[in-house]
Design a protein that fits this description.
This protein has a single domain, classed as 3-Layer(aba) Sandwich (Alpha/beta knot), CATH 3.40.1280.10. It is built from five helices and seven strands. Helix 3 links the parallel strand 5 and strand 6. The protein is globular, with a radius of gyration of 15 Å. The two termini are 15 Å apart.
C-alpha cells in the first residue's frame, strides 16, 4: 500500500515478540507479490519506541494512530499535513501506554489521528490507516 520500510517498534504493552526476521521478510515478499507490487519494503530489526523517537529525523512526519481518540474525523487532520515524507505508527495489541501517548502527542513531528470507535487488531489497523492516508493525502499529491 505504499510502505517503503517496515520498522517493528516495541512498546510498553507489546504482546509477544518477533522470533524470526527471515519469516517477517518472507511475509513481506509474499504480500508484495500478492498485490503485484514491484518494490518490496525494507524490513528493519525491532527497536524500542523511545529509541525510535530519540533518533527520529524531524523532516519525516509520524502519523500516530491513537486508539484513545475516537472522536473526530481523521481526513481534515491529514489534509493539514504538508510533509511528503511520512511514517505510520500503529499501536500494539495492548495499546499504547498513557506515558507513550503523552510523549507522542508532545512531539512537533507527530500528528495523532483516530481510526474510529472500533477496537482493531494491529494488522487491521495498519491496513485501515494506510487506506485513510492514501484517500486523504495519497500518492497523487
Amino acid at each position: 500500500m505504499g510502505a517503503g520500510l517496515l520498522q517493528p517498534v516495541m512498546t510498553q504493552h507489546v504482546q509477544g515478540k518477533i522470533t524470526s526476521m527471515e519469516r517477517l521478510q518472507a511475509n513481506v515478499i509474499e504480500a508484495a507479490e500478492q498485490c503485484g507490487v514491484l518494490g518490496i519494503p525494507q524490513v528493519e530489526a525491532p527497536k524500542r519506541l523511545a529509541d525510535v523517537l530519540d533518533t527520529w529525523p524531524g523532516e519525516r512526519r509520524i502519523i500516530f494512530c491513537d486508539e484513545g481518540d475516537s472522536g473526530q474525523n481523521p481526513l481534515p487532520i491529514l489534509a493539514e499535513i504538508k510533509e511528503s515524507k511520512l511514517a505510520l505508527l500503529i499501536g500494539p495489541e495492548g495499546g499504547f501506554s498513557d506515558e507513550e501517548r503523552t510523549r507522542l502527542r508532545s512531539l512537533d513531528f507527530v500528528t495523532a489521528i483516530p481510526l474510529g470507535p472500533r477496537i482493531l487488531r494491529a494488522d487491521t489497523a495498519a491496513v485501515a490507516a494506510m487506506a485513510v492516508i492514501q484517500a486523504a493525502i495519497g500518492d497523487w499529491r
